[in-house]
UniProtKB/TrEMBL annotation:
Molecular functions (GO terms): DNA binding; DNA-binding transcription factor activity
Source species of the chain: Falsiruegeria litorea R37
Domain spans labelled HTH lysR-type: 6-64
UniProt keywords, alphabetically: DNA-binding, Transcription, Transcription regulation
Protein known as: HTH-type transcriptional regulator CysL
C-alpha cells in the first residue's frame, strides 16, 4: 500500500479550508484558485472514503467531527515539514550543526584543533565530531554519509570521492637527540642500512616506508612496530631505533620526556596529503571548512610541519 498518495500541498489546502470555514477564504490564504482548494478537499475525502466537510452554499463549509480530528492530526505534519525545510535551507546559509571530520594523518592533532576552533569562534550553533581512521575507512565514511570531510594520505582513491591536494609530505628520519646519523651532512635512505628501525605500521604508512627502503636497496632491521605516532616517537626517544615519518608535531619531546630530532632525507618520494568529500555539492559548512584548511596549509605554519 502506498501511504504517500496525498501530497503535503493537498493536506495543507484541506487544513486551511477547515480553519477558514470557506473555500474562497482558503484560496485567498493560499493564493490559489478556489477550484484548486475544492479539488484538494475532494482528493482528501476520496482517499479516506469519508465525508470530512459539509458544504453549505450560504454558510461555507463545516468540518465533521472526523474532519476536525483529521485536520488536528495533519497540522503537526505540516509544521514538522516546515521545520525540516528551514533546516535544509540553513545548510547553505549558515555555519551550524555538526561537522563530521575523519582523518588519516597521524599529526592532525598538531593543526586540526586550531582550524576547527577558528571555525567555531563565529558560531555557537556549531560542533564537531572528529574521528581517527585509515585511508579506506575515511573514504567509506564519506560515501555512506557518516563523514562530511576527510583528511588522508595516499593515492588509493575510491570512486565517488572528490579530493583536493593539501601538501606533499617528504620523508624524514626521526632519531634520538645526538644520534650518530645527525652528524651526516647529507642523509639518504641508504644510510639506514643495519640501523634499528621503529616502523609506524599503519595502512599506507607501513607499506610506504617499506617501499622507500626497498627502492633504496635497504633491508630494514625492524626493532619495533606500532600503530601510534606518539609511540613511535617515544620508542625512538628511548633509544629503540630511528623511524621514517612524513610530518612532525610542534614539539621535539616525546610523551616519555625524551628529546628527538627530525633529520631531512635527500631522497624518497613524498606522501600526498589530500582532503576528500563525497562527489556533489557540499553544504556550506563543509565548503568553508575545506577552504580554511587549504588556506592554512598554504601558509608558513603548515610548512613548519615538514622536514626538508
Amino acid at each position: 500500500m502506498d501511504d504517500l498518495r496525498l501530497s503535503l500541498r493537498l493536506l495543507r489546502a484541506y487544513t486551511v479550508a477547515v480553519d477558514c470555514g470557506s473555500i474562497t477564504g482558503a484560496a485567498e490564504v493560499l493564493n490559489v484558485a478556489p477550484s484548486a482548494v475544492a479539488s484538494a478537499i475532494d482528493r482528501v475525502e476520496a482517499e479516506f472514503g469519508a465525508t470530512l466537510l459539509v458544504r453549505a452554499r450560504a454558510r461555507g463549509i463545516t468540518a465533521t467531527p472526523a474532519g476536525r480530528a483529521l485536520a488536528a492530526r495533519i497540522k503537526p505534519l505540516i509544521e514538522t515539514y516546515s521545520d525540516v525545510m528551514q533546516q535544509g535551507y540553513a545548510l547553505n546559509q549558515g555555519l551550524r550543526g555538526t561537522l563530521h571530520v575523519g582523518y588519516y594523518a597521524p599529526i592532525a592533532p598538531a593543526f586540526l584543533p586550531h582550524i576547527l576552533q577558528n571555525l567555531g569562534d563565529d558560531s555557537h550553533d556549531l560542533n564537531f565530531n572528529v574521528q581517527e581512521c585509515d585511508n579506506i575507512t575515511a573514504q567509506s565514511g564519506l560515501l555512506d554519509g557518516t563523514l562530511d570531510v576527510a583528511i588522508f594520505a595516499g593515492d588509493e582513491l575510491l570512486a565517488g570521492v572528490d579530493t583536493r591536494p593539501l601538501m606533499d609530505l617528504p620523508p624524514y628520519v626521526l632519531a634520538p637527540e645526538g644520534h650518530e646519523l645527525s652528524t651526516k651532512s647529507k642523509l639518504g635512505l641508504s644510510d639506514l642500512h643495519n640501523v634499528p628501525l621503529v616502523l609506524l605500521d599503519l595502512p599506507v604508512a607501513g607499506a610506504y616506508v617499506r617501499r622507500l627502503l626497498r627502492a633504496a636497496g635497504v633491508t630494514p632491521r625492524i626493532a619495533a612496530t606500532c600503530t601510534s605516532v606518539e609511540m613511535v616517537r617515544s620508542l625512538v626517544g628511548a633509544g629503540a631505533g630511528v623511524a621514517v615519518l612524513n610530518m612532525r608535531p610542534r614539539t621535539e619531546q616525546s610523551y616519555g620526556g625524551d628529546l628527538v630530532q627530525a633529520l631531512p632525507l635527500i631522497d624518497g618520494e613524498p606522501l600526498h596529503l589530500v582532503t576528500g568529500r563525497a562527489a556533489g555539492s557540499p553544504r556550506r559548512l563543509v565548503q568553508v571548512f575545506q577552504d580554511q584548511l587549504h588556506e592554512w596549509f598554504a601558509g608558513p605554519e603548515a610548512r613548519a610541519l615538514i622536514t626538508r
